[in-house]
Records
---
Amino acid sequence: MMKLWHCKDARSFRVLWTLEELGLPYELVTLPFPPRWTQPEYLATNPLGTIPYFEDGPAKMTESAAICEYLAVKHGAGTLGVAPAEDDFGAWLNWLHHGEATLTFPQTLVFRYKILEKPERRIPQVAEDYKRWFLARTVLAENTLADGREFLCAGRFTVADISVAYALLFAGTLRHLDEVGPNLRAWWERLQTRDGFVRAKAAQA
């Protein structure tokens, strides 16, 4: 059985949501955040100390977007992926990685230097600069959804939507979601009504 190490609403939520969308059986291990500090024995499982960590037989994976792609390709039967022969295959891959590399990464710096560090190590200017960095880079998704498009690519819900949507979940945690454009906020509200999202939220609770 697949096994996912997870922290509530961390990047591993992408994987949890994908598992629930696909209806796959899995074992969930929920850890306090950050596990490398709060549960150092976790380093014996994942030497990086990061979340997620995912196992599926011989597959041992640590990157949330890559795990979502793996699940879509290996276990999704085409439901959450886009095939190479489809016109939007490139767009699917781009959105899948855009959600992490472009939209989530800058917010990790906001989180670190505004919240996670001890007060004497916080750097408000860094947090503010990277919040603005994130907001400026939401323009691509905001414009893509401007024509009433329901999903980011291929005319259907895929793990690309999950990847980008997680960045908005994180923005909500950091309390700057209201500064994101209206098309993205409306899209995010719609996605939160999906059964897979609701089940993933319940699973981590």
---
Amino acid sequence: MTLGERIYAQRAARNLPQAALAEALGVSRQSVSKWETDASVPDLDKLVGLCELFEISMDELVRGEEPAEEAPSPEETPPPAAAETRPVRNPLTVRVAVGLGLIFLGALVFVLGLLYLGEAPAGLILASPFLLCGAACLVFKGHPALACGWILWGGCTMFLSHATGVKPHWVISPAMYMGLGYPTNVYAVLAWSEALLLLALLARTGWVIYRRVKKKLERPGA
């Protein structure tokens, strides 16, 4: 539809004669007739006057665009559909289950050690890693694996120190590497393993502390 056809359609929809439209805009009837036959184009001020008279926007008259629908008021807006409820997984469930499982396994190891070894201390020593790691999982809500790592490292270090005399600081002792016997090589591997595990635990612990301090400082009002 051309501009002239739209002007004619708007005038006809209001039962407005060409003469009345021309009088309202201050032009001749012939000018209105030329607009409607696309023989000429109204000036900008006449287009504005046509829009005001027809109570439409310039885009509707010139481009033929449909008026935008009004947004419904808050009272008319239908309530949103209820979101599908999904069961929220409790992040503590896995931690608690692992902790209880380790404690149960530790108790089982203690009973078996007591039955087969006939000594309560021996069974307790065998069961202590499971019992302590299980307790760590229940107590430490954040980073229970890190706590278990420290427990296992401490237990292994104490055991190797009493059983073989190996200590982590041996890695910086030149006297350790002077012997060429088989036991010396094994002790070197054990000492290096303890030292590397210690460094890994220290690095991880330092990173966790750094993240917590940084998060605390970034909080508003901290």
---
Amino acid sequence: MKEEIIIAGFGGQGVLSMGKILAYSGIMQGREVSWMPAYGPEMRGGTANVTVILSDKPISSPIVNSFDTAIILNQQSMDKFENAVKPGGLLLYDPNGITSQPTRTDIGIYRIEAAAEASKMNNSRLFNMIVLGGFLKIKPVVMDENVMEGLKKSLPERHHSLIPLNKKAIERGREIVNKQA
């Protein structure tokens, strides 16, 4: 098993955190893991992406040019990474701020209204966990108990009281993700 994932969006959307949780979850599951962030000098509002590789075998390089999965959270990332998904791969996106819908027919395209759902839950910071839940429903690359361990490892201890709320957001993401026709 080898899954090469790009998660891309604006700084402040939890892109790097989502990647870190996936990476820690993979470690908890005994997988080989690579986590490689890339972001501009701006923290919030600038573009950010992270490449995560989960594998049963040693990873020869963290640099990937085509991906099994792209999780896209803004239009700039859609423009940059839609064509980098391998044929037969997966593209998951939140439509908030996306002006040009994905057009490929050789990949699975899924939509998740995570920004709207986070707003309904009165907590915009749950956005990335809703997206993560949608992804894990489509591709359960790590087990749920390892995701919770990954969440504990990536969150500062002072925020561990938020883990149940994050778990609820992950579950909600699984409920609302939709395959596009």
---
Amino acid sequence: MPVREMSEHECLQMLAAQHLGYLASARNNRPYIVPVHYAFEAAKIYGFSMPGRKTDALKDNPHACIHVDDLAHHDQWRSVLIEGKYTELPDTPEFHNERIYAWSLLQKHDLWWEPGIFKPNADGDVGAHTPLFYSISVDEISGR
């Protein structure tokens, strides 16, 4: 399969069609990457998470990168990379509408809360923390 650059339109179509990506962040000069379910709309990626290492890193350094791939076969694949800025959507009047919007997009997909909900605390109680929603603006996009 010859490798070629995807157009921005092709990249955006792929983002809309897929729902699993890998969110990368950096904190204290250390990279961190995790799988996330997402929804894409209006030049933003929307996601859901429990508080933890990922969200702490993104609060300290809001520059984020998301990788989304579509692997049909070892010689038949597509890959999109997004660079953007993380914004937490707290349960406050200021973010209420965007938070509800994020939830409305995410809940259209099966298992949208996984793996974000699986963040047990020290005694294993998943419900001990308040889940959060976030967005990542699409500042730069590329694909092959």
